[in-house]
Amino acid sequence: KQFGKGAVMRLGENIAMNVGTIHTGSLTLDIALGIGGIPKGRIIEIYGPESSGKTTVALHCVAETQKAGGTAAFIDVEHALDPVYARQLGVDIDSLLVSQPDSGEQALEIAEALVRSGAIDIIVIDSVAALVTKAEIEGEMG
């Protein structure tokens, strides 16, 4: 009860949960995922080597969310978001909410505030590897 309904359950209790999806922009990937895209309301990590297309897939998901009338946020931890490239992938950069936080703590606080607002359909944090604590940043400078 402390974490809300559905936070902990027996698998056999609710086998068929209706989870909406966000298309990835790739029909093949949507089919491979088994539900037609990535599930809404979940934390999804796109993992892979550097320059393997993680941000590109995330931006396609943003574009698909926007095309469906949703609101998207991009937390640019790396300070490397290319708006020209994003637009080429179909992202409406004029309505995209973008944040470039100064630390990992700030990035996660922003993400939490966006989630709690209930107004955002997809939040991208790019990248998890760049989530460096304020103490680490200050230690590097000192």
Structural features, described:
- The protein is an alpha/beta fold and 142 residues long.
- It has a domain at 48-141: Rossmann fold (3-Layer(aba) Sandwich).
- Strands 4-3-5 form a three-stranded parallel sheet, with helices on both faces. Strands 1-2 form a two-stranded antiparallel sheet.
- The protein has five helices and five strands.
- The chain is 34% helix and 12% strand.
- The model has no long low-confidence stretch (mean pLDDT 90).
- The chain starts with 20 loop residues before the first strand and ends with a helix.
- It has helices at residues 27-32, 54-67, 83-88, 104-117, 134-141, and strands spanning 21-22, 38-39, 72-76, 97-99, 122-126.
Short description:
The protein is α/β, with parallel strands linked by helices and 142 residues long. It contains 5 helices and 5 strands, in the order E-H-E-H-E-H-E-H-E-H.
